[in-house]
Amino acid sequence: MGPLLAFSRAVDALNTRLGWVAEWFVLLACLLAAGNAGLRYAFSLGSNASLEAQWYFFAGMVMLGGSYTLFRNEHVRVDLVYGALPDRARVWVDVIGIALFLLPAMALLAWMSWPFFLESWAQNETSSSPGGLLRWPVKLLMPLGFMLITAQGLSELIKRIAVLRGHWVPKESLHAAYTRPEQ
Fold first, then answer.
1. pLDDT over 90 at 43, yes or no
2. Which of 26, 132, 139, 175 lies in disulfide reach of 117, CB 3.0 to 4.6 Å?
């Protein structure tokens, strides 16, 4: 389990750093949106590039932040039974869910979105809006984001299997605790 847990720690560290980048994208998108609105209403100025940059930041938030959200176990759950299960049973549910649903779905999405990016890159695609931005950099975020979630899913699977096998996993890397959402 040692090499697998080392891989898991590396993936966790990478996605923690990318989560930090995604957090900054939130601030940048908000500042850009406020600036765009201020310039538009105060001076009747606007730019297609700055509007497109807002959704580029939003795409970065989602596609780079998804893997960090999975690492922190803060993704949305539909909890019908999970919260009532004992810890070990929850770990088993996670293992089954990751192996049967998360990993195949994210790997498929990464694979299917790669040609979407490649075509845009090969054509050096730009926005059809006057003064718009290149499109391929934001389209790269799709396969990259799905690959990062796949890697984080593998990391989570490794940690949960290690726990089931009796290996010690640091609490800060295994965010498996469940807290019921406040209503």
1. no
2. 139
